[in-house]
């Protein structure tokens, strides 16, 4: 068996210009010398530790919020304990994954740039801020409300959570801009290689808006000016992320109509449209509910903001749009299940971190349903939301049980986009600035 390093093709200027963008390939049986289900040494596990591993923490984080979304006996100790177990487990896993990520880029110099320049793996960097947002929701809704952390000075914990949220949204904007720039100027794309992963950097902005929306009632109780800032900041972040995602969804639909479903390695990104729709619907309802608490204002001469009906109008619009997006989410859910099942029958699936991609969207759908039940006073949505929350926690626990053994055994690190493509001889060249080439030719 040849050594792994002997099969790696480095991204150097000399060979980058001679290669072409890759097209979907069958899943390789051998991964640079490591057969399937063969334990890897820790050095190779770290080398294969892609940003997609934060799908796991996203699933754990959204599951930690499900006890809050159960509408019956909300003050039961068992719900508080379940929340704390999931939340602390998520915190520990996040710390471990951050450590593995830092070790990857320290141990393998140049890996960070290759990840940023890769048209697939770079998209999953957005999973990190999407992991932090449910954790911050838990900090405000669970740690602050349920446990009254820090006692009499618990309001300081609320301000700390608010500061964490602002920092996370700034990180989300930075990543979205960097990925947009890379997609336009660096990444080589074609329609066949397009996947739902393109939604991730901009879908993260939608997720970023949700933590602020849930903090609005808590902030309003202490400072309405800061609460109004949080509401506007959340709404702006939501609208920017959702508008770009809608444009990308049109491209994704064209890709499926023309070229069919993505290959097995990328099929779990089919859950991304569900995440976009249901996260937008829930966040919009929460933001509009916050505006209803903040309006009308009792200063200034704005005919709208001082109108007693302003908050109710905004809330009505938010609930109507949120209901529409909930219905669209059902279509996205059915499509995601169909896509994974169809590709599983055609190619089979590799169990890896991407298999967790369904947990976060499903958990957000449960919370979206809970929000509709809360604002519509609907028993149907309450019961359905409670059932979905329980199912999310049970399935997440099941995923954790089947993930932990192969993770520590070293058989779950089955693919890394950068490492695998290099092993297969696929190197992605940068886009060529044709205007600069024409100018140099004319000068010559």
UniProtKB/TrEMBL annotation:
Pfam families: SLAC1. This is C4-dicarboxylate transporter/malic acid transport protein. Residues 1-21 are annotated as: Disordered. PANTHER family: PTHR31686, SULFITE EFFLUX PUMP SSU1. The chain crosses the membrane at residues 52-72, 78-103, 159-180, 201-220, 226-253, 274-294, 314-343, 355-375, 381-404. It is a multi-pass membrane protein. One of its GO terms (cellular component) is plasma membrane. It comes from Sistotremastrum niveocremeum HHB9708. Its main location: membrane. InterPro entries: SLAC1/Mae1/Ssu1/TehA (IPR004695), Sulfite_efflux_TDT (IPR051629), Voltage-dep_anion_channel_sf (IPR038665). Keywords: Cell membrane, Membrane, Transmembrane, Transmembrane helix, Transport. The lineage of its organism: Eukaryota, Fungi, Dikarya, Basidiomycota, Agaricomycotina. The keyword Aminoacyl-tRNA synthetase does not apply. One of its GO terms (molecular function) is sulfite transmembrane transporter activity. Belongs to the tellurite-resistance/dicarboxylate transporter (TDT) family. It is found in: Cell membrane.
């Amino acid at each position: 068996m040849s050594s792994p390093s002997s099969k790696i093709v480095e991204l150097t200027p000399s060979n980058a210009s001679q290669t072409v963008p890759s097209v979907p390939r069958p899943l390789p049986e051998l991964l640079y010398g490591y057969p399937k289900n063969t334990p890897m040494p820790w050095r190779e596990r770290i080398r294969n530790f892609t940003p997609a591993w934060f799908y796991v923490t996203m699933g754990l984080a959204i599951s930690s919020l499900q006890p809050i979304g159960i509408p019956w006996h909300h003050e039961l100790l068992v719900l508080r304990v379940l929340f704390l177990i999931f939340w602390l487990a998520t915190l520990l896993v996040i710390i471990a994954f951050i450590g593995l990520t830092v070790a990857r880029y320290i141990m393998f110099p140049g890996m960070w740039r290759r990840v940023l320049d890769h048209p697939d793996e770079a998209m999953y960097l957005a999973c990190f801020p999407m992991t932090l947002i449910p954790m911050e929701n838990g900090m405000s809704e669970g740690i602050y409300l349920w446990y009254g952390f820090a006692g009499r000075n618990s309001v300081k914990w609320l301000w700390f959570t608010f500061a964490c949220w602002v920092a996370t949204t700034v990180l989300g904007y930075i990543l979205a801009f960097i990925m947009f720039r890379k997609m336009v100027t660096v990444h080589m794309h074609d329609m066949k290689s397009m996947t739902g992963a393109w939604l991730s950097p901009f879908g993260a902005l939608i997720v970023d808006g949700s933590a602020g929306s849930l903090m609005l009632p808590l902030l309003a109780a202490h400072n309405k000016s800061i609460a109004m800032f949080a509401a506007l900041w959340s709404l702006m972040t939501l609208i920017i992320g959702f508008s770009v995602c809608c444009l990308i969804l049109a491209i994704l639909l064209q890709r499926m109509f023309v070229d069919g479903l993505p290959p097995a390695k990328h099929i779990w990104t089919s859950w991304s449209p569900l995440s976009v729709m249901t996260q937008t619907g829930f966040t919009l309802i929460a933001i509009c509910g916050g505006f209803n608490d903040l309006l009308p204002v009792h200063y200034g001469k704005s005919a709208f903001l001082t109108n007693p009906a302003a908050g109710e109008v905004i809330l009505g619009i938010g609930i109507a749009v949120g209901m529409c997006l909930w219905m669209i989410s059902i279509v996205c859910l059915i499509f995601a299940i169909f896509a994974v099942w169809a590709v599983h029958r055609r190619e089979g699936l590799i169990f890896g971190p991407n298999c967790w991609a369904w947990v976060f969207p499903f958990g957000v759908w449960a919370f979206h349903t809970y929000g509709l039940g809360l604002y519509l006073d609907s028993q149907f949505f309450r019961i359905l939301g409670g059932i979905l929350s329980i199912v999310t926690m049970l399935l997440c626990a099941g995923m954790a049980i089947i993930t932990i053994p192969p993770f520590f055994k070293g058989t779950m690190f089955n693919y890394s986009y950068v490492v695998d493509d290099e092993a297969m001889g696929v190197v992605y060249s940068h886009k060529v600035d044709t205007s600069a080439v024409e100018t140099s030719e004319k000068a010559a």
